[in-house]
Amino acid sequence: MRALATLAMLLLAACTEASVSRIDSRTFVIESGGIPGGSEGPNRRLAQRVCPGGYRVVDQTVHRNTPDRAAEEPGVFTNWTIRCL
After folding, report:
1. Cβ(51)–Cβ(10) under 8 Å?
2. Which contiguous run of DSSP H or E holds residue 84?
3. Cα dist. 57→36, 41, 61, 76 in Å?
4. pLDDT tens digits for 20-46?
5. What is the tens place of the pLDDT at every residue in 45-81?
6. DSSP structural state of residue 45
7. DSSP symbol at 35
8. Chain mean position to CA 52
9. 57 close to 44: Cβ distance less than 8 angstroms
10. Which letter, b or e, does each residue of 20-51 get, where b requires 16 or more Cβ atoms within 10 Å of its Cβ?
């Protein structure tokens, strides 16, 4: 039972992590997981990891609920397009 609970917690944590995709040599898209309250901390940490010399947020989109905007999972999703300096 404990192993099942631990596995469920790991799967839920994986759903809330931010992911990054490369657009060109210095431009990336960061898609966050649903975070209650809409914190931008995970996006900032990932942007600093991808661009250690600094970055600029070119575009930001924010929406509530799930990535496809269905009302099943609460949270605020923040997607950034960043450019490394």
Report:
1. no
2. strand 76-84
3. 22, 14, 11, 18
4. 899 999 999 998 877 766 677 788 888
5. 889 999 999 999 999 988 776 555 555 556 778 889 9
6. H
7. B
8. 18
9. no
10. eeeeeeeebebbbbbbeeeebebbeebbeeeb
- Dihedral sign for Cα atoms in the order 31, 21, 55, 53: positive
Domain at 2-84: CATH code: 3.30.1360
DSSP tag of 32: P
Structure tokens at 36: 């209650």
Q: What is the pTM of this model?
A: 0.67
Residue 83 has pLDDT above 90, yes or no: yes
Decide: 49 and 82 in contact? Cβ < 8 Å: no
Cα radius of gyration (the chain) = 14
**Structure token pair of residue 28:** 């990336």
